[in-house]
Automatic annotation (TrEMBL):
Organism of derivation: Durio zibethinus (Durian)
Keyword Signal found: yes
Protein name: Serine carboxypeptidase-like 18
Coiled coil: none
Gene3D superfamilies: 3.40.50.12670, alpha/beta hydrolase
GO MF terms, alphabetically ordered: acyltransferase activity, transferring groups other than amino-acyl groups; serine-type carboxypeptidase activity
Keywords: Signal
Family listed: Belongs to the peptidase S10 family.
Superkingdom, natural source: Eukaryota
Residues annotated as signal peptide: 1-29
Length: 474
């Protein structure tokens, strides 16, 4: 009996290194903990992990911030940025993440970081993902992977989240939500449909999908483009007489215009003269130079130098106006820093240049295969789920009236009619609520916000989300 025990112990001694190796490999695959980041003093006061999830031959980079509340109970959220091709760091720094750039006293060098008081990670764990391939730090060894469509992108995200949950099994039972911004509004309902279908088909792990949250949700290209002219009239950017003329001459259709319809063409040219110098992201803000790089590195460096000369560096002496693009320039400086990439555990040599939004992907390799996602949204009304849609009322990229129009086509029951909602006793926007059996849709506007409302009204957006996610009325 004693000899058998000795043999068993010897076997375990030899087996232990193999077990440790397997455990260490699993730990590595589940992401690397980031305790410090260049630009932030001391240890991060929240749990951040970064890593890659392999989907076929694509390596999708992600940042995962665990909820600061009750991570084993709070919602788990997959956060998708727009573009297509805008990096996960856009959501992490400018929209719902826990950090922001210090823009008030920047004087050169590596930007410093501040805790963001209105982060959604107070109430949810968030996965920020660089998707599709070619976005941020995501890459593939197969060049064909960079040619991806709307449906292909959604399918890739569906596989991504199932693989991610296998790596983080403790979150499998958490309520799961898909959050989207701007262009990814067309991707989110497709991903949701794939998840439901996958669950019903027995795919593992089962995803506890409860809803969708979409800001400035791109949904129907034609509807959004057509809505820009009535929006311009509502906001006094064009005259009533010009609007009446263009409605009559163009028969309410302002895209794909027949060039032989000279009256319509002349009306549209007159409208372009009125709005061409307007910042369509937020019609109240100045129209600043684009802080987006070109594909050529030298062109990119030159464009950033020229843009930085034109954009004011805000400080106590500069109070005239602030160009949001200045924040974006800081993100290029920070994310392309070698020590930053080491801290984020970015694989060396996989991405030559980080872009906040990859214009090459958006203009050359991405396949825009879904012109309208309204049918996907309509199909989801047959499911048990919660949806929150929110729009900035000064956004002329995806005007709020276009979102309100397609919502009206879903044939839902109106539970709460248009009314104001408040933050600290002040009107933060307006809201409506709809339902159909076990489906609920809450729609809200953010007063004074532009495209991607979280970038303009962070406090109000967090209050909106926090109430909604805990089933309180706005």
């Amino acid at each position: 009996m004693l000899s058998k025990n000795i043999i068993s112990c010897q076997f375990l001694v030899h087996l232990l290194p193999l077990l440790l190796l397997l455990l260490s490999k699993h730990a590595d695959s589940a992401g690397s903990i980031v305790e410090t980041l260049p630009g932030y003093p001391g240890n991060l006061p929240f749990k951040l992990e970064t890593g890659y999830i392999r989907v076929n031959e694509s390596e999708l980079f992600y940042l995962f911030v665990e909820s600061e509340g009750k991570p084993r109970q709070d919602p788990l959220m997959l956060y998708l940025n727009g573009g297509p091709g805008c990096s996960a760091l856009t959501g992490f720094f400018f929209q719902t993440g826990p950090l922001s750039f210090n823009t008030t006293d920047y004087s050169g060098g590596l930007p410093t970081l501040l805790l963001y008081p209105h982060t959604w990670t107070k109430s949810a764990s968030i996965i920020f993902v660089d998707e599709p391939v070619g976005t941020g730090f995501s890459y593939s060894q197969n060049s064909e992977d960079y040619y991806i469509s709307d449906t292909g992108s959604a399918h890739q995200l569906h596989l991504f989240i199932r693989k991610w949950l296998k790596e983080y099994p403790k979150f499998i039972n958490n309520p799961f939500f898909i959050a989207s911004d701007s262009y990814s509004g067309i991707i989110a309902p497709i991903v949701a449909q794939e998840i439901f279908d996958g669950n019903e088909g027995g795919m593992y792990p089962y995803i506890n999908l409860l809803g969708i949250v979409s800001g400035s949700p791109h949904t129907d290209s034609k509807l959004e483009d057509n809505s820009k002219i009535p929006f311009a009239c509502d906001m006094a950017l064009i005259s009533d007489s010009l609007y009446e003329a263009v409605k009559r001459d163009c028969n309410g259709n302002y895209i794909d215009v027949d060039v032989s319809n000279t009256a319509c063409v002349e009306d549209l040219l007159a409208i372009n003269k009125c709005v061409d110098d307007i910042n369509n992201q937020d019609i109240l803000l100045p129209k600043c130079d684009l802080a987006l790089p070109y594909s050529n590195d030298e062109q990119r460096r030159r464009s950033l130098r020229e843009a930085s000369r034109k954009l004011p560096i805000p400080n106590s002496k500069t109070q005239d106006y602030f160009c949001k693009n200045f924040e974006y320039i800081l993100s290029y400086i920070w994310a392309n820093n070698e020590t930053v990439q080491e801290a984020l555990h970015v694989r060396k040599g996989t991405v030559k240049q980080w872009y906040r939004c990859n214009l090459t992907l958006a203009h050359e390799t991405y396949i825009y295969s879904v012109a309208s996602a309204i049918d996907y949204q309509r199909n989801l009304t047959e499911r048990s789920m919660k949806v929150l849609l929110y729009s900035g009322d000064h956004d002329m990229v995806v005007p709020h009236i276009s979102t309100e129009e397609w919502i009206s086509t879903l044939k839902l029951t109106l539970d709460i009619d248009w009314r104001p909602w408040f933050v600290n006793g002040q009107v933060a926007g307006y809201t409506m609520k709809y339902s159909k059996n076990r489906y609920e849709l809450t729609y809200a506007t953010l007063k004074g916000a532009g495209h991607s409302p979280t970038e303009y009204k962070g406090k109000e957006c967090y209050n909106m989300f926090e109430r909604w996610i805990h089933r309180y009325p706005l």
